[in-house]
Amino acid sequence: MVETNGSEIPSRVAIVTGAASGIGLAIARKLAQESHRVALFDLSGEAAEKAAAELVAAGLRAVAYHVDVADADSVDAAVRLVRKDFGPIQIVVTSAGVEQYTAFEEITREQWNRVLAVNLNGTFSCIQAAVPDMVAAGWGRIVTISSSSAQSGAKNMAHYVASKGGVIGLTKALAAELSPKGITVNSIPPSIIDTPMAQQATDAGFFPGVEVIAPMTPVRRVGTPDDVAAACAYLCSESAGFVTGQLIGVNGGLYI
Ligand SMILES: NC(=O)c1ccc[n+]([C@@H]2O[C@H](COP(=O)([O-])OP(=O)(O)OC[C@H]3O[C@@H](n4cnc5c(N)ncnc54)[C@H](O)[C@@H]3O)[C@@H](O)[C@H]2O)c1
Hints:
Shape: globular
Radius of gyration: 17 Å
Number of helices: 9
Distance between the termini: 39 Å
Order of helices and strands: EHEHEHEHEHHEHHH
Helix content: 40-55%
Strand order of the largest sheet: 3-2-1-4-5-6
Bound molecules: nicotinamide-adenine-dinucleotide
Mean pLDDT: 96
Structural class: alpha/beta
């Protein structure tokens, strides 16, 4: 169901994964501000509830769902609930992700499988569960959040980088397959963005800190979740209908 909300911008139903924190939260807020009805998917149900409550308190339309994107049954159940609560889904943004820093020779099978399960399989499951609604409507927007590390490579992150490279490949494959049906599929590969994930990596000593990276960045500042959300909102907009299969870097020029 597409509402017009009295404005020129249609109100659509959007799922944002990893929406309780960082980049996903900023995207959920931005899409809700743009009049969309937003389903916040997160493994932390409590944090997602809190985030959704803040959006609702601001007069926006949002509902939280406790979802482990690595569990396809959990994804399917939540997508069914979103249809019941809001209607057919026309926008999916996949930001749920985990990172780990481990030397290649020390990555355990469990670590490899978990990173791939969340970052790549989770992206696949969420998109596949929602796509039939977009096909039926002849309109859809899919944005995956990958990583500039899949463009540049990164040491001690082979599992993470491989998962994000897979996300980029999946994005391109889906763009080729779904664009003729009115569905655009793009990826944002951010560089370092100031979020809890980046802070945890700094605290654990794996990363020097955003303030160290800022002067090395061509635009000379730290990337914010709102920087990513702005690019994502464009890719989800009516105006972006001719943009598909693209990597839209949000990286301050760090990777060109
Ligand atoms: N922050 C950066 O510098 C940076 C750079 C490049 C790419 N990214 C990517 O951007 C995305 C968002 O990262 P962020 O920095 O906002 O991280 P974050 O840790 O602040 O947020 C990630 C969210 O995903 C949720 N999540 C984790 N596993 C999940 C699961 N199995 N099911 C559902 N939700 C799950 C977490 O609970 C959390 O709310 C990630 O995919 C990350 O790989 C981040």
